[in-house]
Amino acid sequence: MTVIMQAKEAAEQTYHAVRTKVEEWKRKGVHPLLAVIMVEGDPASVHYVKAKQKIAEKLGVAFVLHPFKADVAEEELLRRIAGLNDDPSVHGIMLELPLPDHLSTSRIVQAPSPLKDIDGVTPRNKLAVMTGDAGLYPATPQACIRLLQHYGYPLAGKNVTVIGRGQTVGLPLFHMLQREHATVTVCHSRTPDLALHLGHADIAFVAVGRRGVIRRDMVHSDLVVVDAGINTLEDGKVVGDAAADVVQAVAAISPVPGGVGTLTTAILFENLMKAVDLQYGEVTF
After folding, report:
1. What is the pLDDT of residues 145-204, one digit of tens each?
2. Which residues contact 250 (CB under 8 A, 6 or more apart)?
3. How far apart are CA 228 and CA 183, in angstroms?
4. In percent, how much of the chain has pLDDT > 70?
5. Cα 71 vs. chain centroid, distance in angstroms?
């Protein structure tokens, strides 16, 4: 019987810890505030922003949306981020991606203060992921590992295959898995035979953003699959990177939706509380 690694319970445990931290800081006179920057043009971003706002309200976190027209000038966006960096009442800054083509995403994601960068996209936080130093790590790789831990699957000494080497998930996940003492193989678009690597794997993570990257004929009955892919079909249904029938052929798999993404949102708010700790000297950065 395949284990379906739903994230609801792990997410609720994370939210409970966040609520406790929010209340502690409020008793000290600090009211955690998350600022979200959204440039018009991506319907999915609107959905994600509304979802975060609802969660923030439930957690007692102040939420301020900074919306911009689709044709916003890059310098205007950078000025707003600089202002948020300098505002001591703002504890977390998040930039909704993707951005319109006329904006330099690589330049803009470097603009937030690393102390407020709850998405872990700034150079300083990317370096912290590599070195293991204190910092704000990206939420999705954390969610991948946390979900496995919640279901009692150890990483130490395991053969792990990561499919995808993107800056958001695959690359930081590679560094984090090494610190968990896993033996890690990274596969990507130039890897000729995914099935070969999956055949030797105890655990597989997939984060490519392409439906059906992992097929049933590639996997085995002892494999644990963590699917961090998000793909929207023509009918609006959201699916992961693993084909639907993979669930029948593996030991465990995380669903999409209801898996990694659910826990990722919770960890973003956990990162917000870490950001407050960093800004008030509770943790050395």
Report:
1. 999 999 999 999 999 999 999 999 999 999 999 999 999 999 999 999 999 999 999 999
2. 2, 219, 220, 221, 223, 224, 225
3. 20
4. 99
5. 27
What pLDDT sits at residue 260? 97
Return the bridge partners of 231, or none.
239
Tokens matching residue 147: 């979900």
How do beta strands 92-95 and 33-39 pair? parallel
Strand order in the sheet with 92-95: 62-68, 33-39, 92-95
Tell me: pLDDT of 128 over 90: yes
Number of CB atoms found within 10 A of residue 179's CB: 13
Main-chain dihedrals φ then ψ at residue 229, nearest 5 degrees? -80, 145
Give CA–CA dist 271/260, Å, rounded: 16
Q: How far apart are CA 41 and CA 118, in angstroms?
A: 23
Residue 261, C-beta contacts closer than 8 angstroms, at least 6 positions apart: 7, 143, 228, 230
Record the pTM.
Answer: 0.95
> Counting beta carbons within 10 angstroms of the beta carbon of residue 99, is it exposed (0 to 12), middle (13 to 18) or buried (19 or more)?
buried
> What is the 3-class SS of 95-147, one letter each residue?
ECCCCCCCCCHHHHCCCCCCCCECCCCCHHHHHHHHHCCCCCCCHHHHHHHHH
Residues 6+ apart with CB under 8 A from 31: 25, 62, 89
At 264, list the tokens: 């990722």
Residues in Cβ contact with 116 at an 8 Å cutoff, skipping those fewer than 6 apart: 84, 85, 90, 91, 92, 93, 275, 279
Which three-class secondary structure state does DSSP give residue 172? helix
